[in-house]
Amino acid sequence: MTHAAPADPVPSRTDPTVWRASRMIGGPWGRYAVSTSWWTPLRVLLLLAAFTLLLAYGEKAPCADGSWTGNKQYTHACYSDVIPLWGAERLDVGAVPYRDNAVEYPVLTGGFMWATAGITRGLHAIFDTQDAGVLFAMVTCLFLAACGLLVVAGTAGAAGRRPYDAAIFALSPLLVFHAFSNWDLLAMALASCALWAWARSKPVAAGVLIGLGTAAKLYPILLLVPIAILAIRTARYRAAIWCAVATAAAWLAVNLPIAAGYYPGWREFYSFSADRDAEASTFWFIGHYLAKTGIGNGYPPGWSPPGVAVAAVLLLALAGVAAAGLLAPVRP
Questions:
Q1: Whether the model pTM is above 0.90
Q2: Average pLDDT, whole number, for the chain?
Q3: Which of 8, 104, 134, 260 has the least CB density, counted as fewest CB within 10 Å?
Q4: How far apart (Å, rounded) are the C-alpha atoms in residues 223 and 44?
């Protein structure tokens, strides 16, 4: 009997790193090896991501009770915005984001926080011995983990005949440390699925997902830049225009009702982002610290980089992306 090779490219044959690693367990996939019908590449990737997300949950668990004495959140590298914002955003007392409390996140993330807070209060009424803040963290991690799996699915779908390329996300150490540091996985899921839709020639669906992603975090809007570059490169503009229109429509559909009803709370994200100090993890902060304070001289006061400088760096980065897309010998 002749056995056909798997339809999808096998990483142990096509990727040099995986090929070398596979030698520790017997070598790459054989010519006559048979793949089972159930263990598709996507299911393998989802299993790998689930394992990584479990590690991520364990990494944050020491900080779940909010008892952060002696800078425990830093010494154990388990800090998460989810823990303090349960009380700081008054989610613990049933406050509705934007209406009752100005929230420092775009509306879709605020809605995500409100929904998980409502589920938390319902569960806490049943499991009243469990700390409500810990329960909120658990519920948030559960839904963010689902978003993480969507990121894997979207990335694998966009990769076409190289689905295992998504393993670079599914097994990333950064996912262990930061999957549950904030609510970014929501926007990442929408952005990844937008790329999947674009790869399947569905520009309107891609635009809707980009618009929703931008309503969760601002950065998915930047996906329109490479889409525009591809349109210029191919002289095919219709799909890019529909995508941009759908992006605007989806963003407006989510934002306009909140902005109309609770403008001060809705505006908080944009004013806060414009005025906030540079965070210690940014190159802006590191450069300023080294130049003004120096290593070993204590923690410097808050500092915001000049808006003109930030804009210039952003424009230079976008120009670099445009140059790469327009001048590459082979069209991306």
A1: no
A2: 90
A3: 260
A4: 28
